[in-house]
Design goal:
Elements (H helix, E strand, L loop, with lengths): L1 H30 L1 E6 L1 H9 L2 H6 L3 E6 L4 H8 L5 E6 H11 L3 E9 L3 E3 L14 E5 L2 H13 L24 E5 L13 E4 L1 H6 L4 H4 L2 E2 L11 E7 L6 H10 L2 H11 L4 E2 L2
């Protein structure tokens, strides 16, 4: 009986050591895996280019394609993702303020000029009275869209970062505004006269801002500096080895060339 108890204790100890060993192995694997969230176009396409570069530094790159904004920031905040690459600076600041998150810009990668698109209107001067206009429904992109419409001479808006349709001072053409989830804006082109579409969702829908938009955001406009798309991480991980590896890979000459060769001005590197 005593021998059986001793054997049982020994087996339990061996099993415990084995489980600890498995746990450490899993932990080590996690330490060498970089999890990054991206939207499909162009972010996933760009990140796919750096897989080999990241692996050369001893890390595996786990790319998670998520066609939505906020869930990616929540995942970084909660530690489920090491980083994400989809948003511009203004959106990141908005989320930090509204949600109390602690996200930080690790690197500025590119800008995607926003465009005004239409299936029926060929020139901005031809927009008719009472035209229906679809704009993004999140505050930072709604303000960006309204600034572009103001630049095009269709409305007048006050100064300020987060202006809304309710803030419009002058609307001579009596434009009718509909706020839509940014990802759905390309689909509204069949139902509205104008849609102001973010660059990534335009590309995903097969639209090129330089060829298909009737009015384009000026890439050199001071107002779009906050519209630069960034690699975002949690503040506490800003100087981590994983972040350094991602920053080095995403700001390489290889990535710059890929962006310039593939997007023809619809995506512009800023590093």
């Amino acid at each position: 009986m005593k021998k059986k108890r001793i054997l049982s204790v020994l087996l339990t100890g061996v099993l415990a050591i084995g489980l600890i060993g498995c746990g450490n192995s899993s932990s080590k694997e996690d330490d060498k895996t970089i999890k990054i969230g991206v939207t499909p176009v162009p972010h996933n396409e760009i990140v796919e280019q750096i897989k080999d570069d990241v692996e050369a530094k001893g890390y595996k790159l786990d790319i998670q394609v998520i066609n939505d904004y906020l869930p990616q920031d929540t995942a970084v905040e909660e530690g489920e993702l090491d980083a994400n690459f989809f948003q511009h600076i203004a959106y990141l600041n908005q989320v930090n303020e509204e949600k109390g998150y602690h996200l930080a810009v690790a690197a500025e990668i590119h800008v995607e000029p926003m465009g005004i698109y239409s299936n029926t209107v060929k020139k901005i001067e031809d927009v008719k009275d009472g035209a229906k206009v679809a704009i993004p429904n999140d505050p930072s992109n709604e303000a960006r869209a309204l600034r572009l419409l103001a630049k095009a001479g269709l409305i007048t808006i006050p100064e300020g970062e987060l202006v809304t349709a309710a803030d419009i001072k002058e609307n001579k053409k009596n434009l009718q505004f509909t706020e839509v989830d940014a990802a759905q804006l390309p689909r509204t082109l069949e139902e509205v006269d104008l849609a102001v579409i973010n660059g990534n969702y335009a590309l995903d829908a097969g639209l090129n801002v330089n060829e298909d938009a009737i009015y384009i955001e000026d890439k050199d406009d001071e107002n779009i500096k906050d519209m630069r798309n960034v690699l975002a991480v949690k503040e506490e991980n800003l100087n981590s080895e994983k972040t350094k590896v991602l920053v080095e890979a995403l700001t390489s000459d290889k990535v710059r060339k890929f962006i310039e060769d593939n997007y023809k001005g619809a995506v512009i590197p800023v590093f």
